[in-house]
Amino acid sequence: MFLENFFDINAIIYTYPLLLDGFLLTVKLVAVIVPAGIALGTILALIYALGGWFTKAGFILYVDTFRSLPPLVLLVFIFYGLPFLGIQLGSFASAVLALVLNGSSYYAEIVRAGIVAIPKGQWDAGRATGLTRFQTIVYIVLPQAVRNVVGPLLGNTLELTKATSICSVVALPEFLRTAQIAQSHVYNPTPLVFVALVYLILLWPLARLVSRLERGIATH
Amino acid sequence: MEQIQYYYFNLPIMRDALPTMLHGLGLTVLMALTTVAMGVGAGLLLAILRSYPSRWIRWPIICFVDVFRSLPQLVIIILIYFALPYAGIEFSPFWSTVLGLSLVLAAFAQESFWAGITATPRGQWEAATATGLSHTATVLFVILPPAIKTSIPSLTNRIIAVTKGTALGSAVAVQELLAHAQSIQSVVANPSPLTLGALLYMAIFAPMVAFSRWLEWRYRWSR
């Protein structure tokens, strides 16, 4: 009875082409959103470190705004709200925009925290050898800063990967969405259980790694 | 410019939508508070249990934490709401969301508290045991108070991240803030209620984010 309902192999065999498409779309979303989020976040953190008080205030406004908005609210606004202005992005582009805005704010804050934690002497040493401020931050400060915040960066990547599941709400046929469609085809929750298991198997090692890195920082 | 004002900051529409949206906001706040109470409470309990030197206690807790750190929040909520009824277990949309988020918060809170507990110097344990305190008394009265203090910044960030997930309730038809904003938006054919919703979310979460920024700044300088 229990196995029939939650682990019905036939339900998976019947719906697997659909689930495979959904899985691949989730992978595609992650492959676009994570690098874009890291790149934008790093650029913002560099602007913060090099800029004056005005750019610093702008940075905090950007980061805190997108950290206070639930990503789903942002996504609904972009997907349902922007078309009124004639900006029709479609569900994939809307999802990418919403999650890059959300993800980049967290990445930016993490990289910023890493940069300000680097001792001032590193800046002075770089400048003393004749590097410009920009060269100093890119070649000397940033590499050390990133090494110190690898744990939080990976942690945010895990969160962002998981967050792609909210795109199911704007009818983007990613992994969770296809599981819901599959469930309605077979009148059985097995596809949902299957999708949860795949998420678990793929993300568990990353979650382990993140908690190991966080523990490492706490003890050293 | 006029178009932007008409579509996104339409004050008459916002005024009409406000009473309903405030109801939604009330439910959002209620969900958030219930989630924090259940999630942080369970996380603290798990962290205390994990300190007992028995693998039969430790391993199930580590498994629980890993599972709920790895699964997306929405997947957990959908499983509770759409899959559990097949096993005869039914939760309302409200409780499906709150339970799902509480499980996630419990896992993350456990990690925060546990990091605080393991950061306590060994000498504290030895000193407490030497004065004749039991394991339970040592954890509760000696180890936990400073450990909780250490864990506050990371815990605050987790609480913000998880309580923002209350918006996911709209996917299982909880009539919270986002759900109201969307339904009014489709009735009046104008997205101003979405702007209002976003502003109301920011009214709750922006102070919390600012608070966490202040906490991190303070903790850094107190060390």
TrEMBL record, chain A:
GO cellular component terms given for this protein: ATP-binding cassette (ABC) transporter complex
Keyword Iron-sulfur: no
Superkingdom of origin organism: Bacteria
Gene3D superfamilies the UniProt entry points to: MetI-like
Molecular function GO terms recorded: transmembrane transporter activity
KW Chloroplast (keyword) present: no
Domain spans labelled ABC transmembrane type-1: 23-210
Membrane topology type: Multi-pass membrane protein
Signal peptide: none
Pfam family, one: BPD_transp_1
Keywords: Amino-acid transport, Cell membrane, Membrane, Transmembrane, Transmembrane helix, Transport
Broad class of the protein's primary localization: membrane
Compartment list: Cell inner membrane; Cell membrane
Annotated transmembrane regions: 29-51, 72-101, 192-210
GO biological process: amino acid transport
Similarity section: Belongs to the binding-protein-dependent transport system permease family. HisMQ subfamily.
Purpose of the protein: Part of the binding-protein-dependent transport system for glutamine; probably responsible for the translocation of the substrate across the membrane.
Protein name listed in UniProt: Polar amino acid ABC transporter permease
The organism of origin for this protein: Nitratireductor aestuarii
